[in-house]
Amino acid sequence: TLPDPEEIKALIVLPHSIAPWDPHQAVRLMQEQFPNVPIYSLFANVPGCSRAYSLENAAIQALMRHLVDDHDYKRFSVMLGASTQNSISSERLTHIKGFLRIELDPLNVFEDSFRIEDGKTVARKILERTEDAPEVLICMNDQTALGAIKEFQENGIFVPEDIAVVGFDDIVESTSIPCTYTAVTQSGWELINALVERIASDLAGKTAYDKEAVTLNSQFVHRESCGCTSWFEKPATADASFIPQEPPR
């Protein structure tokens, strides 16, 4: 429940958190409900409002190059969250497929939510595979990756020795797993600071509200969970020569 519109000076919205299946529609509904309130989208590229989000294309390219070229993985599994048109899973999967040189086995594409328990459930499904078990599990967020790793461990399957696991966002909780964690990171604090500074400037009248985007590049950081057990202390970043483009719409 939102307060009286007369009391709201600005709205900061996390579309992928409040409406993972249709983040764009959720923001449109808010714009209709609060037509005179400036809306700022955090971590999501939602047209029609001011927004701050990460460009992940180059980092995902670096991740996939690393998994395919450096590790020579051929059997991939992917764990999605909501995978509707404008969801974060759909955007990330589009980039992954664009850089993957082989077709994903439909049996190794799992759709659930972004919870630890969903990661455990998917890990159990993978453990049931007796033939052509995946070599690597790509999770679209960290909570599902942590759940999968814990479930593998409880069943005597070790990461990365038996299966590699990689994810997105690089949250602090990833330090709780037995190996260090390979992920595509978001520039979370930098994006928050940039957006808050813009909001403060707009509310103070120094700048006018504008439906513009603040973007920062995500980075690919490899550690142990992808299989880099001998040189994980030297993190890799996306190729600086690759200029990231706007995510496909």
User: Can you count the beta strands?
Assistant: 10
- What number is the mean pLDDT? 87
Please provide the ordered H/E string of secondary-structure elements. Answer: EHHEEHEHEHEHEEHEE
The structure class reads: alpha/beta
Q: Any idea what the shape is?
A: elongated
Largest β-sheet summary = 6 strands, mixed
Q: Tell me the Rg in angstroms.
A: 19 Å
Strand order of the largest sheet: 5-4-6-7-8-10
Unreliable stretches: 231-249
Percent strand equals 15-25%
Distance between the termini: 31 Å
Q: What report would you give on this structure?
A:
- The protein is an alpha/beta fold and about 250 residues long.
- The chain is about 35% helix and about 15% strand.
- The protein contains seven helices and ten strands.
- The strands form two sheets. A six-stranded mixed β-sheet has the order 5-4-6-7-8-10, sandwiched between helices. The protein has a four-stranded parallel β-sheet with strand order 1-2-3-9, sandwiched between helices.
- α3 packs across α4.
- The longest helix is centred in the last third of the chain and has 16 residues.
- The protein is elongated.
Keywords:
single chain, 249 residues, alpha/beta, six-stranded mixed beta sheet, four-stranded parallel beta sheet, 10 strands, elongated, disordered C terminus
Walk me through the topology.
Layout: E1 11-13, H1 15-18, H2 23-33, E2 39-42, E3 50-55, H3 57-70, E4 76-80, H4 88-99, E5 109-111, H5 116-127, E6 136-139, H6 142-154, E7 164-169, E8 182-185, H7 188-203, E9 213-217, E10 219-221
Parallel strand pairs: 1-2, 2-3, 3-9, 4-5, 4-6, 6-7, 7-8
Antiparallel strand pairs: 8-10
Helix pairs in contact: 3-4, 5-6
